[in-house]
């Protein structure tokens, strides 16, 4: 269908600490803008999800927060995830049942993903063209869309080149 991807995540030499910094900055400013509080547990959950471009499962997150002495009772963790999702700061990758930080949280959008079978890195790809086609097609069928999930699997460019580390550390 499409080959468009956010190429910054496909380059092994990219500076991932910059991704994390950027994500946290965006989160702070979006929360301030909407009068929401980026509590300690929300912030740390976001940071942990951003540890890599591999989606993180709720139980992995729970375990990490527990290690760090947070109140990691499941409801606390799920509420934090709910918050981050509704704020658009993370996406849920349905097929992996895991969460991915979003690099474009300031522009609300659907998450359409390219998932690498080898390194499990997930890239978002530009959804706008496809979104429009889907909406139009559904409308011609008289169908009202509730959710859209597009998750394509394959091999990222780093894994095709045989890089050990995959797309991003
Ligand atoms: Zn990165
Ligand atoms: Zn996104
Ligand atoms: Zn890969």
TrEMBL record:
One GO term of the biological process aspect: regulation of secondary metabolite biosynthetic process
Record's protein name: Fur family zinc uptake transcriptional regulator
Alphabetic keyword roster: DNA-binding, Metal-binding, Repressor, Transcription, Transcription regulation, Zinc
Pfam family, any one: FUR
CDD domains assigned to the protein according to its UniProt record, in alphabetical order: Fur_like (cd07153)
One of the record's GO molecular function terms: DNA-binding transcription factor activity
Protein residues bound to Zn(2+): 116, 119, 156, 159
Family annotation (Gene3D superfamilies): 3.30.1490.190, Winged helix-like DNA-binding domain superfamily/Winged helix DNA-binding domain
Textual note on the cofactor: Binds 1 zinc ion per subunit.
Similarity annotation: Belongs to the Fur family.
Organism: Marinomonas balearica
The keyword Flavoprotein appears for this protein: no
Gene Ontology annotations for the cellular component aspect, listed alphabetically: cytosol
Cofactor(s) the record lists: Zn(2+)
């Amino acid at each position: 269908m499409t080959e468009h991807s956010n190429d910054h995540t496909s380059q092994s030499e990219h500076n991932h600490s910059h991704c994390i910094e950027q994500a946290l900055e965006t989160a702070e400013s979006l929360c301030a803008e909407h009068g929401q509080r980026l509590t300690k547990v929300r912030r740390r959950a976001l940071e942990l999800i951003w540890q890599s471009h591999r989606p993180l499962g709720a139980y992995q997150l729970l375990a990490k927060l527990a290690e760090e002495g947070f109140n990691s009772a499941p409801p606390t963790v799920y509420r934090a995830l709910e918050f981050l999702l509704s704020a658009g700061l993370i996406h849920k990758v349905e097929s992996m049942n895991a969460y991915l930080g979003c690099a474009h949280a300031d522009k609300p959008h659907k998450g359409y993903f390219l998932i690498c079978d080898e390194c499990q890195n997930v890239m978002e790809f530009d959804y706008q063209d496809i979104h429009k086609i889907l909406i139009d097609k559904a409308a011609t069928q008289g169908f009202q869309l509730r959710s859209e999930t597009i998750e394509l699997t394959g091999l990222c460019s780093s894994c095709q080149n045989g890089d050990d580390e995959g797309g991003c550390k």
